[in-house]
Design a protein that fits this description.
It contains 11 helices and 8 strands. Helix 2 links the parallel strand 2 and strand 3. Helix 5 runs parallel beside helix 8. The chain folds into 2 domains: 235 residues, Spore Coat Polysaccharide Biosynthesis Protein SpsA, Chain A (Alpha-Beta Complex); 70 residues. It has an 8-stranded mixed β-sheet, sandwiched between helices. By secondary structure, the protein is of the alpha/beta class. The longest helix is centred in the C-terminal third of the chain and has 34 residues. Helix content is 50%, strand content 16%. The chain is elongated. The structure holds uridine-5'-diphosphate (UDP) and magnesium ion. The site of uridine-5'-diphosphate (UDP) has 16 residues, from strand 1 and helix 3. The site of uridine-5'-diphosphate has 16 residues, from strand 1 and helix 3.
């Protein structure tokens, strides 16, 4: 057969023992119906504390097309996706969650879109059934705020389920920031993306690894990682308040000249002090977010530390922290 394309399927997993085998079987069923591609799974065990790695190993012992990477601890989904991309070598690369919330049945359509000339094809959730009200409201708010403030446009409902060409993967790996925000990275690199809508599916088993706190942190990180607009906002606020203060001083001076010394208002003074105090602290907080980014990035720590793999470590792509990673798996 001529021109069989290799497809790597990257699956980040953290404590997914309940669903991993089901995921593999369901996905494999879909893959069996697709001709002309050679599929390989790259499971990334993100420091799971349960039997996730053992299940990966069991799957790998039964099938040649199952590879796994296992981290020394939990580094987060972003790191897991990055490691998978780095070790991938397929002509096309897919990323999807282990919990079957990203329907594998969409893979054939996605591959078709890539055949039609798109550089990547990604899924977009059009409903949020099974998600709490508060979470959906905040999520919508985040997209609105991000698209106003940030230089990268995020598609509402976009999830980390996509298939992309090697060219796109290399572009993503070219952005080697340690604190990663994939939704922003995929938008920033450009290329033609086809968005496929789908209805949200509830997790069959297990629970989400996201707490409300971690989502808020993720949202702040998302905005500050791709935009300096909040910093400009602080400057703008400073100018606006100074202009207001200047006008207020002139008016007070004129009034004093005309009607003599006025008794200063207690409420006015207190309000001004509190208001300014709030603005100053918020501004320091915003500055702090950026200094935090600089601090974390300047250490140039590895994005993940690999402990075990059945992939050949010599195969992995990319340059950063190459030596450390190789040493760690020997
Ligand atoms: N995940 C991961 N590392 C983490 C948290 C999650 O690799 O620290 C994986 C998880 O196993 C799953 C995917 O990321 O395959 C999505 O996680 P989850 O279902 O908890 O997120 P949600 O679907 O609620 O956004
Ligand atoms: Mg999920």
């Amino acid at each position: 057969m001529l021109n069989i394309k290799k497809v790597d399927i990257i699956v980040p997993c953290y404590n997914e023992e309940d669903v991993l085998e089901l995921f593999y079987n369901e996905t494999q069923k879909v893959l069996n119906t697709i001709d002309g591609y050679d599929f390989r799974f790259i499971f990334v065990d993100d420091g799971s504390k349960d039997q996730t790695l053992s299940i990966m190993k069991a799957l790998a012992s039964k099938s040649d097309n199952v590879k796994y990477l296992s981290f020394s601890r939990n580094f987060g989904k972003e790191s897991a996706m990055y490691a998978g991309l780095k070790f991938s070598s397929g002509d096309l690369v897919a990323i999807l969650d282990a919990d079957l919330q990203h329907p594998p049945s969409m893979i054939p359509t996605m591959l078709n879109e890539l055949e039609n000339g798109y550089d990547s094809c990604a899924a977009r959730r059009i409903s949020r059934t099974g998600e709490s009200r508060v979470r959906s409201v905040f999520s919508r708010l985040f997209y609105k705020l991000n698209n106003k403030l940030s230089d990268v446009e995020l598609v509402s409902g976009a999830v980390d389920f996509r298939i992309m060409t090697r060219q796109v993967v290399d572009a993503v790996l070219g952005l080697c920031e340690v604190q990663r925000f994939s939704k922003g990275i995929f938008s920033w690199i450009g290329f033609e993306t086809k968005w496929l809508p789908y209805e949200n599916i509830e997790r069959p088993v297990g629970v989400t690894k996201w707490s409300f706190n971690s989502l808020v942190k993720y949202a702040i990180h998302g905005i500050t990682a791709f935009s300096t607009a909040p910093l400009r906002l602080v400057t703008g606020m400073g100018f606006l308040i100074s202009a207001f203060a200047f006008v207020y001083i002139i008016i007070t001076l004129i009034k004093t000249f005309i009607t003599g010394i006025d008794v200063p208002g207690y409420v006015t003074t207190l309000s001004a002090v509190l208001f300014m105090g709030g603005i100053v602290v918020i501004s320091i907080g915003i500055l702090g977010e950026y200094i935090g980014h600089i601090f974390m990035e300047s250490k140039n720590r590895p994005i993940y530390i690999l402990k075990q793999t059945n992939l050949n470590p010599q195969n992995f792509r990319g340059t950063d922290n190459e030596q450390t990673e190789r040493k760690n798996i020997q």
